[in-house]
Every structure is written in structure tokens, then in C-alpha cells.
Design a protein that fits this description.
Layout lengths: L3 H16 L8 E6 L2 E6 L8 E9 L2 H9 L11 E11 L2 E8 L8 E11 L6 E7 L11 E2 L2 E12 L2 E11 L6 H6 L3 H14 L1
Parallel strand pairs: 6-8
Antiparallel strand pairs: 1-2, 2-3, 3-10, 4-5, 5-6, 6-7, 7-9, 9-10
């Protein structure tokens, strides 16, 4: 049986590791409204900027998990989501889904296959959600640009009953020929609008 001090040490290391992607020092606040703060940072491997959102919303772990797992309803809160559909369920906390994002003409809609994993601490201290784009699951569709690199991370705690503190990060490359400067000029709008709608659904 693992001794308690060793167990606590491993939990601490796991906790600090999970926060490492949120602790970058180059985040710049670019939008703050209605309790939702959106930050941008330069990416080390892309011309497109990374995004971080911090906010405190009314809700519970169960409500948030239900909204994220119900992919067909993502269009109700995910910015510019045209449609999303479940591909395969591995477990209640792991699944694959297809998603399409609408873009204004003359740009082409983007789509992706996402693999989502949800980790809930047994003592309800935190909730982690990781979603990454994957290839080789569905063939690419004509008339759409397949996004091959997306990484989304949520770190959620409950500082008070029915209160969620969320730290969300997004790294993505939309592919195709959209200039990075154009994407970066409005990259904070989508996350802000998504979390504003999410807040309403959680209440």
C-alpha cells in the first residue's frame, strides 16, 4: 500500500503539472467584460496566437460535463459552430466527435475530429477537460478545410457551492490560406462569446 506522504507528493506533482500550461508569463489581457477575461500569447510553433480565458460562472461540475458531452448542442454556445456530432463514445468521460465551424465568405468552413477526455478528481477538488484534434478517424470532406492542430484544456475548480472557476486555454492552427494577422485581429471574440453563452446555459 502506498504511504500517505508519497501519495500526497504524487498528487501535488500532478496538480502542478496540470497547471504548467496556464502559468506562462507572456499572457496579455486583450478583453475583459462581464467577468470574462481573455488573454493572448505568442505561440512557439505557429503564427497564430494562443488564447486563455479566466472566469467564474454559476454552475456545477455535473452541469459543465453535461454541456460539453452533449456535442449536438454545441451550436447553442460554441461560437460560429455550424454543427457537431458524436462519432464514438469510449466512456462517459471520453469520446470522439466531429465539428464544423462556419466562416464568412470568401473563407471556407473549417472542420475537425476532436478527442475529448474528462478527468474528475475523486475528492471534487478539480475537473480537467482535454480536447485535441485527431486525424485518421474520418475522411476529409469536400468544400471544407480540415483543422489538424487544435489543443483545448480546461482546469475547473469550485471555490464555493454552485460556483465554477474556469481556466481555459486554446492552441489552434486553422489551416488553409487565412493570414495569421487576420485571425489574430479577432481571435479573442470567439472565446468571449462562447463563455458568455455558456454562462447563461449553466445558470
Amino acid at each position: 500500500m502506498m504511504r500517505k506522504p508519497v501519495f500526497l507528493l504524487l498528487i501535488t506533482i500532478s496538480y502542478l503539472t496540470s497547471l504548467s500550461c496556464f502559468g506562462q508569463s507572456n499572457w496579455k489581457l486583450t478583453k475583459e467584460k462581464e467577468g470574462i477575461a481573455v488573454y493572448q500569447s505568442e505561440s512557439g510553433n505557429s503564427s497564430y496566437k494562443n488564447i486563455k480565458v479566466e472566469c467564474t460562472l454559476k454552475g456545477t461540475y455535473e452541469q459543465l460535463i453535461a454541456l460539453i458531452s452533449n456535442v449536438s448542442q454545441h451550436k447553442d454556445w460554441v461560437y460560429n459552430n455550424k454543427s457537431a456530432s458524436l462519432i464514438r463514445t469510449v466512456s462517459p468521460y471520453e469520446f470522439y466527435y466531429y465539428t464544423e465551424t462556419s466562416l464568412p465568405w470568401p473563407m471556407t468552413n473549417r472542420d475537425a475530429v476532436m478527442h475529448t477526455r474528462i478527468t474528475r478528481d475523486s475528492n471534487n477538488r478539480f475537473l480537467k477537460i482535454n480536447a485535441v484534434s485527431v486525424t485518421g478517424v474520418l475522411p476529409e470532406k469536400e468544400g471544407k478545410v480540415r483543422v489538424k492542430r487544435t489543443a483545448i484544456n480546461w482546469y475547473v475548480t469550485m471555490p464555493a457551492p454552485h460556483t465554477l472557476h474556469i481556466i481555459y486555454t486554446l492552441e489552434a492552427d486553422p489551416g488553409g490560406t487565412i493570414p495569421a494577422w487576420m485571425v489574430n485581429s479577432f481571435v479573442d471574440k470567439g472565446p468571449f462569446e462562447s463563455f458568455k453563452k455558456l454562462s447563461r446555459l449553466l445558470k
